[in-house]
């Protein structure tokens, strides 16, 4: 199979490395990146077999092409590739928003005589680091990978992409583009905005003694961790998914206003229900840490998902008398680093575990 990858950053580089790891004998990967050093590094490491000099005829034999560029440039990449790609070629992206991009791409495809397919893709994984140097051959393991096929996409074409996602070690989920944008606005985009707004609140409310800054180093820092994400990426996401995000913001503001009114009326039962219902619902989430965030100290470990990896790390920590409160694979880890999430009841245990794991060559994020 001939595979093209446009953009050899964190995601594109990881796709290349993973496919070479699991499918090396049966795949020929052509890579393109505006950063020639990244492309050269990928070729040197064997992640790709050929460096394309432009978006043109070098991609003519590709069966699948991954477009790993910012959302704002996906349609332009498709337009440049279309005259050269083979019939029945599958084009797919890795962007965080889908409906607006897919509409643009569908308009381009409908105006062209060549038969090609576009299936939107969104791997729900990432890292606080970026670029080819941060890519790995296990980034996608046990991560959700959303696919949003265009209307009329044949079942066998979608099946090919689902199998491709499974080869990456990810879990394919098929959604309608509009629902994808709504869902990601609710569970990913809005939380990032809220986290950043909370940080702004502390910054703006803090006094000359910086007491809030000092106090925020505890649980507040934990719940606003995602505010440290790449601002360029989030600028692009907010502008490309404006309508769903705006709707979510309005609903969230309404819920805050309602709670403010409940607080003003001193309705103790309603206040209790507010927290109780939220807590009970959150406890049904499959991979959440079911503890008060102020009492849980969490690290993320970038470890290859292989049989016994959880037991191996748990045994290592246990042998050094480090008590684990919770441990598990993080399925939805977009813009967060690490495959394993480990929670501890004490900060001292977290620090001890961090140093121990680093000593044993694990990459650890706090």
Automatic annotation (TrEMBL):
Please state the Enzyme Commission number of this protein: 1.3.1.12
Give the Gene Ontology MF terms in alphabetical order: NAD+ binding; prephenate dehydrogenase (NAD+) activity; prephenate dehydrogenase (NADP+) activity
Pfam families assigned to the protein according to its UniProt record, in alphabetical order: PDH_C, PDH_N
Residue stretches making up the ACT domain: 298-366
> Which enzyme class, named as a word?
oxidoreductase
Catalysed reactions, as listed in the record? prephenate + NAD(+) = 3-(4-hydroxyphenyl)pyruvate + CO2 + NADH
Per the record, the pathway is:
Amino-acid biosynthesis; L-tyrosine biosynthesis; (4-hydroxyphenyl)pyruvate from prephenate (NAD(+) route): step 1/1
Which InterPro entries does UniProt cross-reference here? 6-PGluconate_DH-like_C_sf, ACT-like_dom_sf, ACT_dom, NAD(P)-bd_dom_sf, PDH_C, PDH_N, Preph/Arog_dehydrog, Prephen_DH
Which keywords has UniProt assigned to this entry?
A: Amino-acid biosynthesis, Aromatic amino acid biosynthesis, NAD, Oxidoreductase, Tyrosine biosynthesis
Task: Give start and end of each Prephenate/arogenate dehydrogenase domain.
Answer: 1-293
Question: What are the BP-aspect GO terms?
Answer: tyrosine biosynthetic process
Name the protein family: Belongs to the prephenate/arogenate dehydrogenase family.
Name of the protein in its database record: Prephenate dehydrogenase
């Amino acid at each position: 199979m001939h595979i093209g990858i446009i953009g050899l950053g964190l995601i594109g580089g990881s796709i290349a490395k993973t496919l070479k790891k699991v499918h090396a004998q049966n795949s020929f990967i052509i890579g393109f990146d505006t950063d020639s050093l990244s492309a050269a590094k990928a070729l040197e490491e064997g992640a790709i077999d050929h460096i394309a000099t432009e978006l043109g005829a070098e991609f003519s034999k590709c069966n699948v092409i991954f477009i790993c560029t910012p959302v704002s440039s996906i349609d332009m990449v498709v337009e440049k590739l279309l005259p050269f790609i083979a019939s029945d070629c599958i084009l797919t992206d890795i962007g965080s928003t889908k409906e607006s991009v897919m509409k643009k791409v569908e308009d381009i495809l409908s105006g062209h005589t060549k038969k090609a397919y576009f299936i939107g893709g969104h791997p729900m994984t990432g890292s606080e680091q970026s670029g080819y140097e941060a890519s790995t051959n296990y980034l996608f393991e046990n991560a959700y990978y959303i696919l949003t096929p265009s209307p009329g996409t044949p079942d066998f074409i979608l099946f090919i992409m689902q199998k491709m996602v499974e080869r990456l070690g990810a879990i394919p989920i098929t959604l309608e583009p509009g629902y994808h944008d709504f869902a990601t606005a609710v569970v990913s985009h809005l939380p990032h905005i809220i986290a950043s707004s909370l940080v702004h609140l502390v910054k703006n409310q803090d006094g000359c003694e910086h007491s809030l800054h000092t106090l925020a180093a505890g649980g507040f820092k934990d719940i606003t961790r995602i505010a440290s994400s790449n601002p360029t990426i989030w600028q692009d996401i907010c502008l490309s998914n404006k309508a769903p995000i705006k709707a979510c913001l309005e609903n969230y503001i309404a819920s805050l206003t309602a709670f403010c009114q409940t607080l003003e009326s001193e309705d103790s039962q309603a206040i209790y229900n507010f927290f109780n219902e939220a807590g009970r619902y959150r406890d049904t989430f499959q991979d959440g840490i079911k503890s008060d965030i102020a009492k849980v100290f969490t690290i993320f470990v970038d470890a290859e998902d292989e049989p016994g990896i959880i037991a191996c790390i748990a045994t290592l920590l246990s042998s050094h008398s480090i008590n684990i409160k919770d441990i598990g694979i993080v399925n939805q880890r977009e813009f967060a680093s690490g495959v394993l999430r480990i929670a501890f009841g004490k900060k001292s245990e977290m620090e001890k575990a961090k140093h121990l794991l680093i000593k044993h060559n694990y990459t650890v994020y706090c």
